[in-house]
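Customer escalation, tier 2.

The customer says the design service returned an amino acid string that "doesn't look like it belongs to this structure." They asked us to rerun it and document both sides in this ticket. The original structure tokens are below, unchanged.
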């Protein structure tokens, strides 16, 4: 479980993000109704809201109120959700459960699911643009935020990592050389890039210094890697009801930390990454306490 100070902080910021998501997303009565229903179906299926909370935390650790970054925080959850909708498709992981509910394509069909993902990604950049109108935000910071997030979500980030992941699945990775470096590259792109971009986006909107952005980048990279290792471990050992999906890594013969190193060594590597992440926060002093607690929780969670 989360320690109480982290739980209180995380829950309050999660609720802020949840309220903003409901406010910014079109209702199911918006025409054409089916696409807006499909979008909201996946966005409000649950989830930790980690990425929007990290956007808000990035602004706060640089001395600003979290509200200044709410549109961008919401956008990060839409990007994350779109990636899950597409990841579940038959052409990719072919999953029929997500967060304990049928996946989007099982409910709405593949065509609408693809378009719902496309629509969530498009809506995300509309919201980032809206952040320029938030009082206290310098409009000139928004193009830098767009660049950060597009890079983290694109071919040099999440999408690139997904491609490498697919190329290695089905046991194909066993025939390749440099398994360890390929695994690092998959995780750093597939998961860590968007987590790093979340922190740096919030910090950029808050007017962070280059030193602060670098420190948050190092922290985000390490916790992003640790988060994905923890996910890989949970895919093997977690209660599938808590996880809300059926473990598919072994079925798809994916290259994962447990597959390459086993569970014990995978946990050790995740712990090392967490310690490196906490060390990267030194420039922020006491303001970094919540993010340090979050780094610990990332590898201690059970779902």
């Amino acid at each position: 479980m989360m320690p109480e100070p982290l739980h209180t902080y995380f829950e309050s910021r999660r609720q802020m993000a949840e309220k903003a998501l409901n406010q910014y997303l079109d209702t199911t009565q918006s025409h054409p109704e089916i696409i807006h229903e499909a979008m909201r179906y996946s966005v409000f299926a649950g989830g930790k809201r980690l990425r929007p909370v990290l956007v808000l935390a990035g602004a706060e650790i640089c001395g600003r109120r979290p509200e200044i970054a709410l549109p961008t925080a919401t956008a990060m959850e839409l990007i994350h959700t779109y990636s899950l909708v597409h990841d579940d498709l038959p052409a990719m992981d072919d999953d029929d459960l997500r967060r304990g509910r049928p996946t989007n394509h099982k409910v709405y069909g593949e065509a609408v699911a693809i378009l719902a993902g496309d629509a969530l990604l498009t809506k995300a950049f509309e919201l980032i643009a809206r952040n320029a109108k938030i009082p206290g935000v310098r409009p000139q910071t928004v193009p830098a935020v767009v660049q950060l997030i597009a890079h983290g979500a694109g071919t040099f980030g999440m999408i690139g990592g997904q491609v490498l992941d697919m190329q290695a699945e089905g046991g194909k990775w066993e025939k390749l050389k440099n398994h360890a470096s390929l695994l690092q590259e998959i995780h750093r792109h597939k998961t860590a890039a968007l987590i790093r971009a979340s922190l740096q986006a919030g910090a950029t909107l808050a007017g962070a210094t280059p030193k602060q952005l670098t420190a948050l980048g190092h922290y985000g990279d390490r916790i992003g890697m640790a988060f994905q290792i923890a996910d890989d471990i949970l895919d093997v050992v977690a209660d599938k009801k808590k996880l809300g999906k059926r473990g598919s890594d072994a079925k798809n013969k994916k290259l994962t930390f447990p597959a390459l190193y086993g569970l014990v060594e995978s946990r050790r590597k995740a712990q090392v990454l967490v310690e490196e992440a906490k060390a990267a926060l030194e420039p922020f002093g006491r303001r970094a306490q919540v993010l340090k607690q979050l780094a610990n929780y990332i590898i201690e969670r059970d779902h």
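Tier 2 assessment: The sequence is consistent with the input. The chain has a mean pLDDT of 93. The longest helix spans residues 210-237. Sent an explanation to the customer and offered a walkthrough call.
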